[in-house]
Amino acid sequence: MSAMKRYIYINDDELSQNLYCDNRISNKKYTILNFLPKNLWEQFSRFMNQYFLLIACLQLWSLITPVNPATTWGPLIIIFAISATKEAWDDYNRYLSDKKANEKDVWVVKQGIKKHIQAQDIRVGNIVWLRENVEVPCDLVLIGTSDPQGLCYVETAALDGETDLKTRVIPSACVGIDFELLHKIKGVIECPNPDKDIRRLDANLRLFPPFIDNDVCSLTIKNTILQSCYLRNTEWACGVAVYTGNETKLGMSRGVPEPKLTAVDATIDKLTGAIFIFQIVVVIVLGIAGNVWKDTEARKQWYVQYPNEVSWHELLVIPLRFELLCSIMIPISVKVSLDLVKSLYAKFIDWDSEMIDLETGTPALAANTAISEDLGQVEYIMTDKTGTLTENRMIFKRCCISGRFYGNESGDALKDVELVNAVASGSPDVIRFLTVMAICNTVIPIRSKSGSISYKAQSQDEEALVRAAACLHMVFVNKSADILEINLNGAIVQFDVLDTLEFTSDRKRMSVVVKDCKSGKIVLLSKGADEALLPCAHTGQQMRTFAEAVEQYAQLGLRTLCLAWRELEEDEYREWSLTFRDANSSLVDREWRVAEVCQRLEHDFEILGVAAIEDRLQDGVPETIKALRQAGINFWMLTGDKQNTAVQIALSCNFVSPEPKGQLLLINGKTEDEVCSSLEKVLLTMRTTNSEPKDVAFAIDGWALEIALKHYKKAITELALLSRTAICCRVTPSQKAQLVELVKSCDYKTLAIGDGGNDVRMIQEADIGVGISGREGLQAARAADYSIGKFRFLKRLILVHGRYSYNRTAFLSQYSFYKSLLICFIQIFFSFISGISGTSLFNSVSLMAYNVFYTSIPVLVSVLDKDLSETTVMQHPQILFYCQAGRLLNPSTFAGWFGRSLFHAIVVFVITIRVYAFERSDMEEMSMVALSGCIWLQAFVVALETNSFTVLQHLAIWGNLAGFYFINWIVSAFPSLGMHTIMFRLCRQRCYWATMLLIVAVGMGPVLALKYFRYTYRPSKINILQQAERLGGPILSLGNIEPQPRLLEKDVTPSSGTQPKNRNPIYEPLLSDSSNATGRSFGSGTPFDFFQSQSRLSSSYYRNCKDT
Amino acid sequence: MMNSNATSSSSGVAGSTEISTPRRNSKRPKYSKFTQQELPACKPILTPGWVISAFMLVSIVFIPIGVASLFASRDVVEIVDRYETACIPPASKSHKVEYIQSSEDKTCNRTLRVLKRMKQPIYVYYQLDNFYQNHRRYVKSRSDEQLKYVRSENDTSACKPEDNNGLSIVPCGLIAWSLFNDTYSFSRNNQQLTVNKKGISWKSDREHKFGEKVYPKNFQNGKLIGGAHLNSSIPLSEQEDLIVWMRTAALPTFRKLYGKIEVDLQENELIQVAVENNYNTYSFNGKKKLVLSTTTWLGGKNDFLGIAYLTVGGLSFFLSMAFTVVYLAKPRRLGDSSYLSWNRNPGGH
Q: What residue spans carry the Low complexity bias annotation (chain B) (predicted)?
């Protein structure tokens, strides 16, 4: 701790000049010099590449190579060149963006004079001057601002994704230093070595004389402005550079994310490994056989002239030859083809016009092009709540002021004539209500040049209230220091903010003490959750109407806030304010003591009314969740919100299925024991109900989760596996990531979706991260693998794009192995009739062309293949099961392809050597016959496995066949190319065409018969849907599949307006009787909502689904 | 009004958005059938009708072809005479290899009976069994450059171990070195039957692979004598036996054209063949056969195609019948959604 420190001498050009790095930002991975070695090293760290390199090197040894080394070197170099070029291009772009940032102009004090220099030349210890709305070039400790109190505002969106303005303040030691003197300030800052914690800085500042005394002034993160923040609302600010370049907080936290590997890739790797082992076995067996044959038979074959005495290493020659002959078992083309199709999948996502958010015009974006298949295999979705499921757009909708309901008829209080009239006539209750709405908050009004006012608020609720008040002619116009200005119907009213009693999650309310500048009255304004405010009302006030209002609004899915006020006596305030200041400066238990002091003031309120705010669910959220749950995906909601809010949102968006069978279990507890017993009870219930078709969900809060993750990891893991739904509330970003990791560690594919900076860690941790480019900035969207405009696009992303990608890759990869094995098996068979000496039947040109052209092009168009139409998939999300369970790519399907290639190799080989026997058995002719046999077969195999033929597919499959003949005619025309005139001769032979026909019939007949039999008598669900879809008729009846669950839903749905009291009793938690005070009932008892964000079960959402 | 203002400020002011918003909008996809994966597609499915008729069609096409090619193959008249054992004098039976390597006269007379009238041209082949022309060591041991160009005479690196014996060998390599050297002379009723040995090799080989100006040099000069000697005054392009031999066979049993008899042979005629039995197949127990054969539109005698076609045709007929029977006995409605099991317990999981 003490050892790792840096001392920064402020404004001292000599002392700290070269001790630390300059402010050059570098995200580059390579330099020009190290690019080649480093990139090659990276590429060769992959097993496949090492394998190919080894093969290529072996081929240089002409004694063992069966074919020209170019067959491997060519493709290998092309592959390497492609990936190296891609890397270089990415790196060049990074370099350009770095350069742009590095060459930005900034004002810096050098030798006592303000100078304009480039951002990259800033040194630690320099004083940097910033103007309003500029980006902070490095981490600074504030020493002065234009604000007399030393405040400034920064926007930290790029750092943590939060778009509200944060207040930063200069250290106490610098308060009052004159603007002119700031140039000359000298001192030393003692701060820790760079780290990536953006919430913490433990540093000290000591100014040198003549500036103040020698006292050490402590610095916190509040005194800093960090790189990439924006200075807002402050004319200027200046600070001392403490961390620069890549050593800033942002630079330190910027890590290169690990490349993600899809499950499909992992399977392919495993299969490759299996094939490799198979290959080794073949090589060993054939190698031994070859050596034995050589010693027994080949010695007698005088025309081969084997030397009589051989050295031991000659024994290796034959096995190595077979290794080279069999090396094509692992197709070099598979990686290239996969990369190619994967980028096309990503493009399809980018291009999809149905995933464009029409409101903002944002298309979906696949930042990670490599993991589309994983989308089809998702098993768990971890979703954020606010901004992801909801729109995060709070709108003031209704209110109840002193017993009168406004906005009930029109649904919008702002348009309620009665309320407008009441404001115009200056009804005191309404005015007071509006005053609280307008100023009881921490909102900062920003006046733009055109004169309009916008608001920056930490909480969306506050912003909604202030805006609503502004619409009702109570405009909060200005906040300068402690003076608030309100424009009420044209008259300016000023308030002096005396104290702010901040919101904490325990108090569930916030208050301000203001003094009316005109009358001098001191008033306490307060707003908060009903449960936090109503009990503090002064005795005698009629509470029933407010409780009813809260109840009614909650039924509509609105978040409610109670507003209250109390006039304070001058003496009372003065006395209290002393204790408050005292508590605020206490060093021990400060939060608790402040809360206690606040409590002393917050009593005997006069409740003014209830405001209801709407945070609507995004369009299509319930349907999306329902469809994805049908698809067998488990949903977890991870939110920073309170349990109540989370549960109610969960209910309203099909998260917890609304059948009577549904059940929600709570895990609560403050201590280890409580959590443990609660956890065990839930687990027990889960286990017993697991067999029933019951929809059991559990809810856990952050505190209990912390304990559970620490001490009962096994139990919580088991719980995670048993439960299809979970709600985790009040979880921190790191807990979100931990939960994702927990599920991931059980080998489930997880998808994390979120919109805010607090979701970034979870998004990066998950197998697939999806960001919603929403109102909380683009932080999440930028960290994510996919970014979409709205939650509802997730359905299409998974069901359509994910599923197709998986299916296509499954086919493509297995097919690649099939065709390589086919040619390889033929080579192996041929070796048995060529004295096990490792002769290649095919020549080099053919082998290379077979892999690169003849077989790659037809299979590449399989990226257009659709087994089922998009509509069918959307109607039957259950079909995704085939992808999740990996039904289309696993060892057994692979064994099928393996068997097929063996069968086809036998067919091609046997027919060829039987037809081309005796006088026809010329090597060149025969190799071409066998090769054409393979090409014909593979064309028909692709055709049989293709589900939908577009023009492109026909072109690729049959055009490729024609292309094969065309290429070979050309090659045959040149005497030097080793197969002079062969193709012309063959094409003139009737028996050649008869052979091709025979190979196709014998090769495809059994495959077709088997497929037909399966298709008709053992159809998979996919087959049934295909049949239904294509026969036309029954597809209409498929529509009838859905309604049943909907009917159930209809029955359950409470009609919203008529029976507000009838709360859904099914969610009575099992454990409510047993668990202690923390166990909360969600049933008929009235759960009070909390301040920060709340929402109630909204039956209106059910109506939405029915309508659609 | 207030609303729109505030919204724009809260999203537009953020520096991060400024950077990426225009980029995103410019990337807005253009609509096309390809990009939306909506190209018109035909989606064939395996209905019983299609599959049964496909198999039926195969049987209808294959059976006639099979019958035709079987007839063609049967039309071919072929005389095969295995002589490698018979041509060893009884005294040398126990040491065949020594006999064949000795320099005594190894002429041997064979008599062939023509079973059926043979129309000209009659092809004369020699057939070797258990001879691995496709052995890796053997097949690579040649130099195509050297065969074609005089200037590449010393280009013998691929020819090991028969590359040079002090001087470059033309033609080099194991293949040329082991050139088959049995000769046959045919006579009928004590009249010489001429065997035309011109044009037995591929025209393209004569013109493009074997040089007109390349003459054999230092051939069979070494200690080990493999096969035939070559007349060093005849260019390679006219050494047709060599050209035929150098077209290596892919199978260990192969026939190579020896010549053509251009007269008809009548039924029951006796043909005398004087075989000069020089080639050593005894060390590896290889057979040597002399083959006289006519040809048809499908080539020489080979029943395989015909039998295979008939078998495939028959099997497809059987399959199509079986599918029809099964289909009639156990009809199954395609695409019946009642087979979708998740419909049975709606919403259940």
A: 1-17
